[in-house]
Design brief:
Blueprint: E1 3-9, E2 12-24, E3 30-38, H1 42-50, E4 54-59, E5 64-73, E6 81-89, E7 100-110, H2 114-136, H3 151-178, H4 183-187, H5 200-208, E8 210-219, E9 224-230, E10 234-242, E11 248-254, H6 264-272, E12 283-284, E13 287-288, E14 298-299, H7 307-318, E15 343-348, E16 362-371, H8 373-376, H9 381-393, E17 397-400, H10 404-407, E18 410-412, E19 430-433, H11 438-447, H12 452-460, E20 473-482, E21 494-495
Parallel strand pairs: 6-21, 11-18
Antiparallel strand pairs: 1-2, 2-3, 4-5, 5-20, 6-7, 7-8, 8-9, 8-14, 9-15, 10-11, 10-16, 12-13, 16-20, 17-19
Helix pairs in contact: 2-3, 2-5, 3-5, 9-11
């Protein structure tokens, strides 16, 4: 229980609060104690919420403005989340015609920031290049000839790009060893000391740490939305269903499944990929081999490399840097146990000019939220859609949680497949509508909403203690509307 204390110093009064902390006692046995921290002012909290926030728009010639916001708040030091965005124009020779590919991705790192940071620089490029080889046909690729751009083939291209990039990431340090070992050393089974090699840590650390990745790909030419998920980040969409009387509601469509050992689909998949005698151990307590929570992720070489490869990499790169790798999990027998190959889902989206939409009644996808699990630990899919819908409606100020369903009606579409123990919905307290940035708006409501003191306390806990109460959280919101004015069109630097 967080407790507020008033402590006067000279003529100044400030607020502190206490949290329980586990520390090592004099005999080395962990014991619980309390730590006291100063409470950040509300303005300081708002500054932190907005410190990594961005907002941008993309104007299309067809009269549509795409808008997107992103915000990240750290619980770890350094932040292990990352994100990326890109707009790629179709080539004039593309048989589909004019249009853009819009890419949005969030990465949830674990065991360090190395994998997520690398993915923020490479994943969209990898998918874009794979789509290009698919669309135009590239000698030597899996798409040696142009093929039909249908959802199945596009999804396959995205999956191929994720898998190929992870293979490059995982085996880059193995290739580095191979290029620095002579035949004599191979015969004697000697491992070179490459700890001071300039590529040693830059190559190995992204393969040892790990990261989930969630990507949304909008094909504006064919009005297709693809969501690729590797891990336990989640994407949800708000579908506006307009009624004949001019009212309407938001349908909550969950576009991905949380991929952990608590997901029965993931449990069955992993069990099917390993011998029957491992069926009871591949997932323990909802985690891979009892350790890693996401069942799909980039990196995480400890769950992918054979044991002897791990030992060689440890000797070659880490021992000399005094950063030895943890041994493979005790239940480790038949790797790999984790894959980066994503599950890709497909949806159509529409604009106001679609013939299927009439002035009296329409149903159209209007926004998508991509977020790392730090958001979903605090908010449900339904709450997120209602909070975005209320923001777009123009709600302001504190709104009691019990009243929001009346102000912003939602209906269930595809259900959420939870990757963790299901959180209990709390109808007490209030939401707050006041932030212009939609991503900051969601994070603020996840961490306290209209309860300023709760928000201040949660944001005042420093790393690494903050990780016990919240996770790194990154949120991207994408929506679109008709142009009222004609802002400058974003420069599109790449072609596909």
């Amino acid at each position: 229980m967080l407790r507020r204390l008033w402590k006067p110093i000279a003529a100044t009064t400030f607020i502190t609060f206490e949290i329980p902390v586990k520390v090592k006692g004099a005999d080395g046995v962990p014991v619980m104690t309390t730590r006291t921290f100063p409470l950040l002012s509300l303005s300081a909290v708002k500054d932190r919420l907005n410190a990594n926030a961005t907002s941008d728009h993309i104007a299309q010639s067809g009269g549509i403005t795409w808008r997107h916001t992103t915000a990240s708040v750290a619980a770890n030091d350094p932040l292990e989340d990352a994100h990326a965005t890109a707009v790629v124009s179709r080539e004039s020779s593309d048989p589909v015609g004019r249009g853009e590919w819009l890419f949005f991705a969030v990465m949830d790192g674990h065991g360090g920031p190395d994998t997520s940071r690398l993915l923020s620089k490479t994943l969209i490029n990898a998918v874009s290049l794979q789509l290009s080889s698919f669309i135009h046909g590239t000698s030597g690729s899996v798409f040696s000839k142009p093929v039909v751009q249908n959802p199945h083939n596009i999804s396959t291209a995205i999956q191929t790009a994720f898998t190929a990039l992870d293979n490059e990431l995982i085996y880059a340090p193995v290739k580095l060893i191979a290029s620095n070992v002579d035949q004599e050393a191979i015969k004697k089974n000697l491992v070179p000391d490459l700890s001071q090699h300039p590529l040693a840590l830059p190559t190995l650390l992204p393969a040892v740490s790990g990261s989930c990745a969630l990507m949304a790909v909008f094909d504006t030419a064919q009005r297709d939305l693809y969501v690729a998920c590797s891990g336990d980040s989640r994407a949800v969409a708000g579908i506006w269903e307009e009624a004949e009387d001019g009212g309407g509601s938001w349908r909550v469509e969950v576009l991905s499944e949380d991929q952990t050992g608590r997901n029965l689909n993931e449990l069955k998949r992993i069990q099917s990929e390993h011998p029957p005698d491992e069926a009871d151990n591949v997932i323990r307590a909802g985690r891979v081999l009892g350790g890693l929570e996401p069942t799909r992720a980039f990196g995480d070489g400890r769950y992918k490399w054979p044991r002897n490869t791990q030992e060689a990499l440890n000797l070659a790169f880490l021992v000399g840097n005094n950063r030895p790798m943890r041994p493979a999990p005790s239940l480790f027998k038949t790797p790999p146990y984790v894959t980066a190959t994503p599950v890709v889902t497909h949806r159509k989206f529409s604009f106001g000019d679609d013939a299927s939409n009439t002035p009296k009644q329409s149903s159209s996808l209007r926004f998508v939220v991509l977020a790392t699990d730090g958001l979903w630990d605090k908010l449900s899919s339904e709450e997120v859609v209602a909070l975005v819908g209320g923001h777009l409606k123009g709600l302001k100020g504190a709104i009691p949680k019990a009243q929001l369903p009346d102000l912003v009606p939602t209906v269930s579409g595809s259900r959420t497949v939870e990757g963790k123990d299901k959180r209990k919905d709390d109808t007490n307290g209030s939401w707050f509508f006041g932030e212009d940035n939609l991503s900051v708006h969601l994070i603020q409501n996840a961490f306290g909403g209209g309860d300023d003191l709760a928000l201040q306390k949660l944001m005042s806990i420093p790393p690494p203690l903050a990780r016990r109460y919240r996770d790194d959280t990154t949120v991207t919101v994408v929506w679109w509307d008709e142009l009222e004015k004609s802002p400058n069109i974003m420069e599109i630097k790449a072609k596909l």
